[in-house]
């Protein structure tokens, strides 16, 4: 397989975003229609590339591209293994589902402020973060996707957006600074920033360096992934932009943080996975519980769903915590279950936020007290919302069930009773929460008929642009649940690949730099 | 806020800044300089224009070219990377030797295109930031 | 000695930055973020070997190994990393300044006051009060500006998204002073 294919998920969205910007006001015209079509075509091509990569890597192989023809520790490496390919596919699916909804609901003012180029740049940043094999490059892609998300969050400039935008930008910037400092310390102590090379040299590094790096990375990535003590930026900002943007963020952004935690702990610190297991599981349990308890107290649909994102990140981290455990079950079962849960979460969460957004636009607001009675007016939307909600809560035919079941199996198998109990409590709370949403938003009587803006689902094209993606994501979730066995085999391959450090290092194959007798390590000239 | 002295001065300073920009851009290949720094320098020239002639005038003259400028710059930079795929791999530099007759020969490659793209992106992004900030400072529009 | 000074500078920058970020004033927030990113940049700079007065370029391409061995050369990689980091923090700082500016024009003050008050009212699960328009600010634009101006036709598609930009500029009144 041609390794240049690895550049496509990064280069193609960037190229088309640049094209859209370049065309945007040429000759004084905006060409919004062209922008929509080009964005859709681009995302479809990216999906095809991701599927091809998934088919290749899930056979147990890795694909490596050394950019610019430079050998590994000197140039920037792109590498795809099973985990990367699965996440690339999911990213393309989520983006493709959000795009029609965005086309239907984003207003003209925002579209003219380069909405579609920013959308593509966000997808490019997410893809790049999944693909890169270079530590500093990972930082750069993080910043790319954060910059795009900053603008997407504040585009339109409503007061609430500006307030939440400042919080979001500042907290994410602080997290990025910790990441950057970690990169500096890694270069200062290990002398390399290529991830495979770092993994090689970390084996010989003193414990202090390893613990410091692992701690800084856990803080930096944990703040991106909205883990327990560092999640405050998420629920205070996700409810302000248009619902399409929230769905995109909820589907993609925190998952990049989770992916980097998975990657760094399996590649750099596999021994800390065992030594820090109480810490990881404690954070996971606290995140699950805080997320679902916080959702109970929230007054609006999107705030409830934002808190659920936090809760579910905890489930994924729980899978990582028991990645190296297994008595009756195989080692790597936990990571595999976590990846499956991630797939379930990305699909269902996006669909549910889209459905909640449709409710919000339909009712002119999403405050639970002031909405209701949608089940009679919009039965199809009600059905889709209900099925997505029970999929999120983990009711059998859907993917949530198999995700939670496998995670529970491995935690019970490795005798972590407390965290298993917490996860069951969190699941029940999730069920209560989504049923509360369902009851408040769809049943009852609507008391403010004057405020209705019933334009969203009346126009036929617009109706299918809104309901189609939600239905498609629901079907994917159903497929993931029905054919769980096969998908679990795929994620198991991916998990074993991710845990196989020597294979990763051998695939990248960092050459040893020519050793030169340098000056003493203190190196001062005073 | 058009300023009289600045308006006189910028007739001299703007060409100097632009020549310096060109110098930095072309020198950047082997020596300190390059697209980013040249772009900042060019944006400084625009800021001088904004200070001397007011944000509104400058926006009316260049405002509509900023978005396409960012796009074209990005297109050039990405194309320079994609061009490498035609040879061996992504972001591999391609070099062409163009004979110029009596003037010797010109060795030019895709990194130059990349640098030009970076230059265009930086000029347009920084200028649009400056226009936005000056608009607030002048109280034109929030 | 040089390294000690560098380490102390990084520490002081971090401390001052952290202090400023936690203040209420928004300008202090921006300054604090600037100090923090400078601190991280200096940390990156220190991650290469400290060499005084040496360029990160091989002076003599034939004997570069000897130069390397004698340490007569700065490590170019941290400098490249710092350049990238500076570009990124420059962009983000500019963005934060624009946001704070906009917030300033909205609230007419650069001090964050009483952020808890609207949150308490809004986040109170037992309160009966409904504050019109607070929770769905982004929709207010949609409904008032686009829908009610009749830019939506019966099938729901928007009328003429390709409006002439120069005409729009003219309408917004960019006339010569």
Written account of the structure:
- The complex is a heterotrimer of chains A (526), B (142) and C (177).
- Chain A has a domain at 276-505.
- Chain A is 72% helix and 2% strand.
- Chain A is built from 21 helices and two strands.
- Chain A has helices at residues 8-24, 32-57, 82-105, 108-112, 115-131, 135-154, 159-190, 195-202, 207-225, 243-267, 270-275, 277-296, 301-321, 333-363, 374-377, 379-393, 399-413, 417-442, 460-482, 484-499, 501-508, and strands at residues 63-66, 77-80.
- In chain A, helix 1 packs antiparallel against helix 2 and helix 6 packs antiparallel against helix 10.
- The model of chain A is unreliable at 516-526 (pLDDT under 50).
- Chain B has one domain (4-138).
- Chain B is mostly helical and 142 residues long.
- Helix content of chain B is 72%, strand content 7%.
- Chain B is globular and about 55 Å long.
- The two termini of chain B are 17 Å apart.
- The mean pLDDT of chain B is 80.
- Chain C is mainly alpha-helical.
- Chain C folds into two domains: 2-113, Helix Hairpins; 114-152, no CATH class.
- Chain C is 60% helix and 0% strand.
- Chain C contains seven helices and no strands.
- Chain C has helices at residues 2-21, 26-47, 64-70, 76-107, 116-123, 137-147, 165-171.
- In chain C, helix 1 runs antiparallel to helix 2 (26-47) and helix 2 packs antiparallel against helix 4.
- Chain C is elongated and about 65 Å long.
- Chains in contact: A-B, A-C, B-C.
Offer a few descriptive terms.
A: mainly alpha; C: 177 residues; Helix Hairpins; 60% helix; elongated; disordered C terminus
Give the biggest sheet of chain C: none
Q: What share of the residues of chain C lie within helices?
A: 55-70%
Q: Secondary-structure element sequence of chain C?
A: HHHHHHH
Shape of chain B: globular
Beta strand count of chain C: 0
Structural class per helix/strand content of chain C?
mainly alpha
Rounded to an integer in angstroms, the radius of gyration calculated over CA atoms of chain C is: 27 Å
Task: Kindly report how far apart the N and C termini of chain B lie.
Answer: 17 Å
What is the mean predicted local confidence, pLDDT of chain C? 65
Tell me the β content of chain B.
5-15%
Morphology of chain C:
elongated
- Helix % of chain B is over 70%
* Class of secondary structure makeup of chain B: mainly alpha
Number of domains of chain C: 2
**Low-pLDDT segments of chain B:** none
CATH level 3 topology of the largest domain in chain C: Helix Hairpins
Based on DSSP secondary structure assignment, what is the total number of beta strands of chain B? 2
| Computed Rg of chain B | 18 Å
């Amino acid at each position: 397989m041609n390794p240049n294919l690895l550049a496509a998920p990064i280069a193609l969205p960037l190229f088309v975003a640049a094209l859209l910007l370049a065309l945007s006001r040429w000759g004084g015209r905006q060409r919004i229609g062209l922008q929509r079509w080009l964005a859709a075509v681009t995302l479809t091509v990216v999906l095809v590339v991701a599927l091809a990569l998934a088919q290749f890597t899930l056979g147990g192989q890795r694909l490596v591209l050394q950019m610019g023809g430079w050998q590994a520790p000197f140039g920037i490496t792109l590498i795809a293994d099973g985990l990367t390919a699965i996440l690339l596919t999911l990213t393309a699916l989520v983006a493709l589902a959000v795009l029609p909804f965005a086309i239907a609901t984003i207003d003209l003012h925002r579209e003219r402020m380069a909405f579609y180029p920013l959308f593509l740049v966000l997808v490019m940043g997410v893809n790049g973060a999944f693909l890169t094999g270079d530590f500093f490059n990972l930082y750069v892609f993080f910043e790319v996707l954060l910059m795009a998300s900053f603008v997407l969050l504040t585009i339109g400039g409503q007061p609430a957006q500006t307030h939440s935008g400042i919080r979001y930008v500042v907290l994410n910037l602080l997290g990025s600074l910790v990441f950057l400092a970690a990169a500096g310390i890694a270069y200062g102590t290990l002398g390399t920033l290529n991830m495979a090379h770092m993994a090689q040299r970390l084996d010989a590094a003193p414990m202090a360096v390893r613990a410091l790096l692992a701690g800084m990375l856990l803080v930096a990535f944990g703040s991106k992934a909205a883990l327990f003590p560092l999640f405050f930026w998420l629920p205070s900002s996700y409810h302000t932009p248009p619902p399409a943007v929230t769905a995109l963020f909820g589907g993609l952004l925190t998952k990049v943080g989770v992916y980097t935690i998975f990657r760094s702990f399996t590649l750099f610190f596999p021994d800390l996975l065992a030594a820090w297991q109480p810490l990881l599981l404690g954070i996971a349990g606290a995140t699950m519980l805080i997320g679902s308890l916080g959702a109970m107290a929230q007054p609006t649909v999107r705030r409830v769903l934002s808190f659920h994102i936090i809760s579910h990140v905890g489930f994924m981290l729980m899978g990582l915590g028991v990645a190296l455990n297994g008595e009756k079950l195989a080692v790597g079962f936990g990571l595999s279950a976590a990846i499956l849960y991630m797939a379930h979460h990305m699909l269902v969460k996006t669909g549910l936020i889209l459905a909640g957004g449709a409710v919000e636009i339909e009712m002119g607001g999403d405050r639970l007290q002031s909405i209701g009675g949608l089940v009679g007016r919009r039965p199809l939307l009600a059905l889709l919302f209900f099925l997505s909600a029970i999929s999120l809560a983990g009711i059998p035919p859907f993917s949530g069930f198999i995700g939670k079941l496998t995670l529970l199996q491995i935690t019970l198998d490795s005798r972590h009773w407390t965290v298993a109990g917490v996860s069951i409590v969190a699941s029940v709370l999730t069920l209560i929460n989504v049923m509360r949403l369902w009851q408040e938003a769809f049943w009852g009587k609507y008391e403010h008929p004057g405020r209705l803006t019933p334009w969203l689902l009346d126009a036929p094209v617009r109706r299918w642009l809104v309901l189609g993606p939600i239905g498609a994501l629901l079907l994917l979730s159903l497929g993931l649940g029905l054919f769980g066995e096969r998908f679990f085999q795929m994620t198991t391959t991916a998990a074993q690949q991710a845990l196989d450090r020597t294979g990763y290092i051998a695939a990248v194959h960092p050459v040893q730099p020519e050793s030169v007798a340098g000056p003493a390590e203190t190196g001062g000239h005073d | 806020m058009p300023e009289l002295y600045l308006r006189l001065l910028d007739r001299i300073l703007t060409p100097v800044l632009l020549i310096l920009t060109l110098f930095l851009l072309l020198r950047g290949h082997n020596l300190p300089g390059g697209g980013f720094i040249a772009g900042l320098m060019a944006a400084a020239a625009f800021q001088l224009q904004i200070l001397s002639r007011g944000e509104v005038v400058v926006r009316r003259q260049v405002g509509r070219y900023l978005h396409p400028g960012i796009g074209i710059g990005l297109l050039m930079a990405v194309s320079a990377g994609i061009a490498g795929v035609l040879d061996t791999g992504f972001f591999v530099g391609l070099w062409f030797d163009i004979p110029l007759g009596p003037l010797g020969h010109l060795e030019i490659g895709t990194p130059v295109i990349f640098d030009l793209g970076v230059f265009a992106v930086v000029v347009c992004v920084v200028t649009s930031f400056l226009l936005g900030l000056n608009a607030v400072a002048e109280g034109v529009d929030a | 000695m040089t390294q000690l000074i560098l380490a102390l500078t990084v520490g002081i920058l971090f401390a001052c930055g952290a202090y400023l970020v936690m203040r209420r004033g928004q300008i202090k927030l921006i300054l604090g973020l600037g100090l923090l990113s400078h601190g991280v940049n200096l940390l990156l700079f220190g991650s290469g070997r400290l060499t005084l007065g040496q360029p990160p370029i091989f002076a003599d391409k034939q004997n570069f190994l000897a130069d390397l061995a004698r340490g007569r050369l700065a490590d170019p990689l941290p400098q490249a990393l710092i350049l990238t980091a500076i570009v990124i923090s420059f962009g983000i700082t500019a963005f934060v300044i624009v946001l704070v500016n906009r917030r300033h024009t909205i609230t007419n003050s650069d001090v964050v006051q009483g952020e808890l008050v609207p949150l308490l009212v809004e986040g109170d699960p037992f309160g009966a009060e409904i504050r019109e328009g607070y929770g769905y600010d982004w929709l207010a634009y949609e409904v008032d500006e686009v829908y009610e101006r009749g830019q939506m036709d019966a099938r729901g598609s928007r009328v003429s998204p390709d409006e002439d930009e120069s005409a729009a500029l003219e309408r917004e009144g960019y006339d010569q002073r």
